[in-house]
Amino acid sequence: MQIIIYDNAQQVAHNAALWVKELINKKPDPVLGLATGSTPISLYKQLVEQHKTNQISFKNVTTFNLDEYHHIAPENPQSYRSFMAENLFNHVDIDLKNTYLPTCATGQNPREQGLAYEDKIKKQGGVDLQILGIGANGHIGFNEPTSSLSSRTRIKTLTQQTITDNSRLFRPDEEQPTMAMTMGIATIMDARYVLLMATGANKANAVKDMITGGVSVMCPASALQMHENAIVLLDKAAASELSDHSYYQWANNENSKLIEDYGYFHNY
Ligand code: F6R
C-alpha cells in the first residue's frame, strides 16, 4: 500500500484528480471505477474543471460505479445514477452509453444482474483505476463487515450504521433504501489500480484498521493490503490514528525523487 498524507481534503481531491488525468491522457480506452458519497465530490469538481480547461476529455472513457441502491429508478434524485449525473456526467463530454452502474430494477433478478455486471466489466477489459471511499465501519463499495473477501457483484443488506451514516442525505419524507447492489471485494481487487480517498476524523479508526489491522472481513477495506497497486490518499484528520506518519512522509519524498528521475510507472 502506498499511503500519502496531505494537509487537507482539498489536496486529497487535487492529487486524486491527477491520477485520473494521467490515466485518461495515457490510455486510449480508459476504464474508470467510480464511487459516490461525500468524499469524491471534490474530486469530481476537479475533473470537471480539468475538462473545462481542455486538460482531459471523457470521450473514450468507460465508467463502472461501485454500487447502486436496489429497486431505485435512475431518475430518482437519490439514485447513484442521479448523483453521477449531477456531480460529473452532466458536466463532461462522456458518452452516457459508456457509463454503467450495477442496477437492479423492480422485477429483475439480483443474481443475474450481478453476473451481468461482472461480465460487462470483463468484456471492457477490466477496471484500470478504481476510486474508493471508505465507510466509518471499514466498508468499501457496500461490502459491509463480514462480506466475503471473494465476493462479486451482488445484493447486500446495509448495516444499521451505514443506514444511519447515509440518513443525512435523505429528507424525512424520502424512503431510504436498505439494500444495494455492489461490486464485491474480489471485483474491486481485480482493478489494476485502486485509489482510496479518506478525509475527516470519523474515518480515522477505519483507516487505521485498513492499514495496520489484520486482513479481516470485519474491515473489508483491509483486503486492499493484498492488492498490488493500492494507493491511499488521506487528510491529516483521517490519518490521525496512524503512528507511522514520518515514515509515510519520508517514503513519499523518496518516491517523488524516483518519479523525477524515471517518470511515473503506472502499468495500465
Ligand atoms: C459509495 C460507496 C461507499 C462510500 C463510503 C464513504 O459509492 O461505495 O463505500 O465510499 O460509504 O462515504 P462518504 O464518502 O459519504 O463518507
Molecular structure report:
This protein is α/β, with parallel strands linked by helices and 268 residues long. The chain has one domain (8-218): 3-Layer(aba) Sandwich (Rossmann fold). It has eight helices and ten strands. It has a seven-stranded parallel β-sheet. A three-stranded antiparallel β-sheet has the order 4-8-7. Helix 2 (41-52) links the parallel strand 2 and strand 3 (62-65). The protein is globular and about 55 Å long. The mean pLDDT is 95. It binds fructose -6-phosphate.
Summarize the structure.
The protein is built from eight helices and ten strands. It is of the alpha/beta class and about 270 residues long. Strand 2, helix 2 and strand 3 form a beta-alpha-beta unit.
Compile the SSE list and pairings:
Blueprint: E1 2-6, H1 9-26, E2 31-34, H2 41-52, E3 62-65, E4 67-69, H3 80-87, E5 99-100, H4 110-123, E6 129-132, E7 154-157, H5 160-166, E8 179-182, H6 185-189, E9 193-198, H7 204-212, E10 230-235, H8 245-262
Parallel strand pairs: 1-10, 2-3, 2-6, 3-5, 6-9, 9-10
Antiparallel strand pairs: 4-8, 7-8
Helix pairs in contact: 1-2
The structure holds fructose -6-phosphate (F6R).
